[in-house]
TrEMBL record:
Coiled-coil zones: none
Presence of the UniProt keyword RNA-binding in the record: no
Gene3D superfamilies on file: 3.40.50.2300
Top-level taxonomic group: Bacteria
Keyword Cell division in record: no
Residues making up the signal peptide according to the UniProt record: 1-19
Name the record gives this protein: ABC transporter, substrate-binding protein
Cited Pfam families: ABC_sub_bind (PF04392)
Key words, A-Z: Signal
Residue ranges of the TM segments: none
Annotated PANTHER family: ABC TRANSPORTER, SUBSTRATE-BINDING LIPOPROTEIN, ABC TRANSPORTER, SUBSTRATE-BINDING LIPOPROTEIN-RELATED
Length: 331
């Protein structure tokens, strides 16, 4: 009898432990947050860290599930289904493809996107003025026309190169902006589409001798293999303008201008915290980083010299990063 009582006690304990999943030692249920990015590179990693730090700063004690789709849409769909099976309280999607997978999978659970260039074009929301249903988030749209005008002025660009990922909705949206800017500025445009990061070097080699320089927007596939592109263009002494400063901190891009992805992550984390504290996603407008302190400007003086370019003093004084003699300097 004593043996039977012991076995029954063990079974009861096991049941109690099973039913306590997602609870801390005090018995309070912790929130579960799934954070997924489409691929790993410096900008998206910084964004992810910003989300985590914002949640901590807001006192959100959550169980976090970090996932990386490695650029594969099937994996993105699997991650979305995993988050649904785990009953996360909020799902965060960093970059367009994974955000779309989450928004397609969840109909009621809040989905917060981040680093999405064109959330309306990606059908994540119907308007930038508000979220749509259970979905809202942050856009990383950059001033493409202003960037290309600056590139033309500083590097005397007449023919611009542009490589984009044909399967990324944000890349297609950015291509339209690049085409419009080149038309307005009287520049010739040479484009090259890729499907995976493994194709980037070959794409760079295919256009490098046909252009005066290359402009990069926020294409995740391109940035995940950026060193290959830098090698090709640096060897040809052709300048690169990056719309993502985070990826340019290790050198190789003559000009980099864009907002700070860590601060984008902080803003995204605050949206998640607002929702956990009771706000409805549909009532939260799409967030943009408009404060100048949330953007960065970098000049790589080593690479500028390699390309025979002198950065005007009026722009150099505005930079908060310079790269010179193989070292990053921060103002």
């Amino acid at each position: 009898m004593k043996k039977l009582v012991t076995i029954a006690g063990l079974c009861l304990t096991a049941l109690l432990l099973m039913s306590a999943g997602g609870r801390d030692s005090s018995g309070d249920k912790k929130v579960r947050i799934g954070i997924a990015k489409i691929v790993q590179h410096e900008a998206l990693d910084a964004c992810e860290q910003g989300v985590v730090d914002a949640l901590k700063a807001r006192g959100i004690d959550a169980v976090l599930d970090h996932q990386n789709a490695n650029g594969d849409m099937n994996t993105a769909a699997q991650i979305a289904n995993k988050f649904k099976s785990d009953k996360v309280d909020v799902a965060v999607g960093i970059a367009t493809p994974i955000a779309v997978s989450l928004a397609t999978t969840f109909t009621d659970t809040p989905v917060v996107f981040s680093a999405v260039t064109d959330p309306v074009g990606a059908n994540l929301v119907s308007s930038l003025a508000n979220g749509s249903g259970n979905v809202t988030g942050l856009s990383d749209a950059i001033p493409t026309g202003e960037h290309i005008a600056l590139f033309k002025e500083i590097a005397n660009i007449k023919t611009l190169g542009y490589i984009y990922t044909s399967s990324e909705a944000n890349s297609i949206s950015a291509l339209t902006l690049v085409e419009d800017a080149c038309k307005t500025l009287g520049l010739q445009l040479v484009t090259q589409a890729i499907s995976t990061s493994a194709e980037l070097r070959q794409a760079a080699e295919a256009i490098v001798n046909r252009v005066d320089g290359i402009y990069l927007t926020t294409d995740n596939t391109v940035y995940s293999a950026l060193p290959a592109l830098i090698q090709v263009f640096s060897a040809a002494k052709k300048p690169i303008f990056s719309g993502d400063v985070t990826a340019a901190l290790n050198g190789g891009c003559v000009i980099a201008s864009g907002f700070n992805y860590y601060k984008a992550g902080l803003a995204t984390g605050n949206i998640v915290a607002d929702i956990l504290e009771g706000k409805k996603p549909a009532d939260i407008p799409v967030k943009f980083l408009t404060d100048p302190s949330e953007s960065d400007l970098l000049f790589d003086l080593d690479e500028a010299k390699n390309c025979g370019i002198t950065i005007p003093a009026k722009y150099l004084s505005l930079a908060n990063y310079t790269y010179e003699n193989g070292k990053l300097n921060t103002k």
